[in-house]
Amino acid sequence: MSVSLSSPAPAENQPAATPDLAWRRHIPALAAAVAGIRQASDAWDAVSDSFCDTDGWPVDEQGYEDGKVKRDAEAWRHVEVFLDHGPEVLAGVRAAARDADYVEGPISEDLRWLRGVDATLEHAGQLQREWDQILVLMDASMPGSRKLYEGRAQEERNADGWHYADELAIRGPALVRAADHLVRRADTEQSAHTERARVALARSASGPRGTLPASPPAPPAPNAPVPGRSR
Q1: Which residue among 24, 28, 214, 228 has its CA within the 20 to 30 Å range from the CA of 4?
Q2: Mean pLDDT of 170-187
Q3: Average pLDDT in the 123-138 region?
Q4: Integer Cα distance of 10 and 3 in angstroms
Q5: How high does pLDDT run on average in the chain?
Q6: Distance separating alpha carbons of residues 165 and 190, to the nearest angstrom
Q7: DSSP string covering 139-170
Q8: Between 17 and 181, where is the model more confident?
Q9: CA distance 140 to 146
Q10: What whole-number distance in Å separates Cα of residue 192 and Cα of residue 77?
Q11: Interatomic CA distance for residues 62 and 213, integer angstroms
Q12: CA 219 to the chain's CA centroid
């Protein structure tokens, strides 16, 4: 069956398949968490040498330990942001990425880092669950002990979590870049589809365009009088 050239193609009449990008709202939080971890690390690096001798050994052990405690606590706060928002963004990126994205293109390398981000979040999540269990045990075993020991236990948790914070500062940007690229691509494709649908609708509303009918023939001219002969 032939298709009229003036009619929109069938695909143009179909609504766009809008991907579920609800996870996009978490991207700014992850970007801020990466920046926060780096800031905590840079702040500590800027002063850590002042607590040590020329060989790198602490000469002010209390000041050195207090500085690390502050760094670890600040960094873990941003790790918790990753635990809250990272898994959903990871799942969204993997759902939106195409096979070709892993082979070549602007995010191919970033996508290869996602397995490392996944593992880091898994281990950090396990550390958080262990911390939650410690609090439960404190409350159950000796009422009131939580108030006495929670601070020290928290410092130990943060110290153990510094490794994961450092990993997220390195690998986390890959997740943010990949997520941002895929969201922008989906928006561009959706805009293009919407424009094609708009043009197709306008073309359809204008009606079919065929060959204009031929103009009617002009009426014959009246017979001119035959001129007489001169005498």
Answers
A1: 214
A2: 96
A3: 91
A4: 10
A5: 82
A6: 36
A7: HHHSTTHHHHHHHHHHHHHHHHHHHHHHHHHH
A8: 181
A9: 10
A10: 41
A11: 98
A12: 74
CB 209 within 8 A of CB 6: yes
Residues 72 and 64 sit within 8 Å (Cβ to Cβ) = no
Q: Token pair 């702040």 is at which residue?
A: 43
List C-alpha distances in Å: 44 to 36, 73, 75, 153. 12, 12, 11, 22
Q: In this predicted model, what pLDDT tens digit does every residue of 25-61 receive, in sequence order?
A: 999 999 999 999 999 999 999 998 888 888 878 888 8
The residue assigned the tokens 């939080």 is 29
Cβ atoms < 10 Å from Cβ of 174: 19
Contact 177, 110 (CB under 8 A): yes
Residues 222, 149: Cα–Cα separation, whole Å:
120
The single-letter code of the amino acid at 118 is D
